[in-house]
Specification:
The chain has 257 residues and is mostly helical. It folds into two domains: 43 residues; 150 residues, no CATH class. Helices cover 43% and strands 0% of the residues. It is built from ten helices and no strands. The longest helix is centred in the last third of the chain and has 19 residues. The protein binds a DNA duplex (21 and 21 nucleotides) through helix 3 and helix 6. Keywords: DNA-binding, Nucleus, Repeat, Transcription, Transcription regulation. One of its GO terms (cellular component) is nucleus. Its main location: nucleus. It is found in: Nucleus.
Length: 257
DNA sequence: AAGCATACCAACCGCGGAGGT
DNA sequence: GACCTCCGCGGTTGGTATGCT
């Protein structure tokens, strides 16, 4: 155990990343991968600590990152998942392809938490709504598949994500719960024009039900079979109850929260 | 137009877990 | 088993953009 030794701060750069640094980092990772974050900055010729590189890559430079506003489905999913998982942002992020834990955490603290607070008098409601931020520092070198602001659909996970999180089929397990949130009264989003690909939801719903194969929640430490036996670990517990909750929500179409 | 208040988000910090020696 | 190193996670913060007066 023990703490990671503090990054050698001497001579290492901190603060916002420049486009050039981004370019160097992306180019290096594309060529050599990121098997060793600690060694990476030296190899790439970056004056950053490995931690910083890793964060930059994961939260910003990864090609499969979805940028832009969160769709309502995504926000609903976050709320739902947060109810069940708590502040386990990485676990929540694993179920929202293209979103990072950091981003989800930010969204939670800036939007969703407030949404869930007891209804405020109008005078206490947020006074302004931010415009979507211009994509700053988006490195031109990144082979991004992103198409700008989110349009609403929660996309299936990429192969890379499947490898790293194995959440392919669970990514959208929240869909049933999310749809049950449709009646929630607290939405004030102006994004009323979102569209969800029906076939996508039906597929993912089907996957949720048919999870007796090994592709279910295994990444979280258990196989999420439809007839799972009693959970044996905390992680199993979590997944067990998660699934139970999802199924219950789906069946009863319970209003959430 | 200017100043202030607020919201947002990228990045940092520190901790704990995992795995190797 | 103890120690070390690395990685990943969650909490927090500081800079900046935006809205309001």
């Amino acid at each position: 155990m023990g703490r990671a030794p503090c990054c050698e701060k001497m001579g290492l750069k901190r603060g916002p990343w420049t486009a050039e640094e981004d370019r160097v980092l992306v180019a290096h990772i594309e060529r050599h991968g990121h098997s060793n974050w600690r060694a990476l900055p030296k190899q790439a010729g970056l004056l950053r600590c490995g931690k910083s590189c890793r964060l930059r890559w994961i939260n910003y430079l990864r090609p499969d990152i979805k940028r832009g506003n969160f769709s309502r489905e995504e926000e609903d999913a976050i709320i739902q998942l947060h109810q069940m998982l708590g502040n386990r942002w990485s676990a929540i992020a694993a179920r929202l392809p293209g979103r990072t834990d950091n981003e989800i955490k930010n969204v939670w603290h800036t939007h969703l938490k407030k949404r869930l607070e007891p209804t405020k008098p109008a005078s206490q409601a947020p006074k302004r709504k931010r415009k979507p931020k211009q994509q700053q520092q988006q490195p031109e070198a990144v082979p991004t598949t992103l198409e700008g602001p989110t349009t609403g659909a929660v996309v299936p996970v990429s192969p890379e994500q499947s490898l790293s999180t194995s959440t392919t089929s669970t990514t959208t397990d929240y869909s049933a719960a999310a749809s049950s949130m449709e009646n929630a009264d607290s939405f004030t989003s102006e994004e009323e024009d979102y569209q969800i690909d029906d076939s996508f939801w039906s597929e993912t719903l089907a996957m949720t039900v048919d999870s007796s194969d090994n592709s279910g929640m295994q990444a979280e430490g258990s196989t999420f079979g439809a007839s799972s036996s009693a959970p044996s670990t905390n992680e199993d517990d979590m997944d067990f109850w998660l699934k139970l909750f999802m199924q219950a929500s789906d069946m009863q179409n319970l209003p959430q929260i």
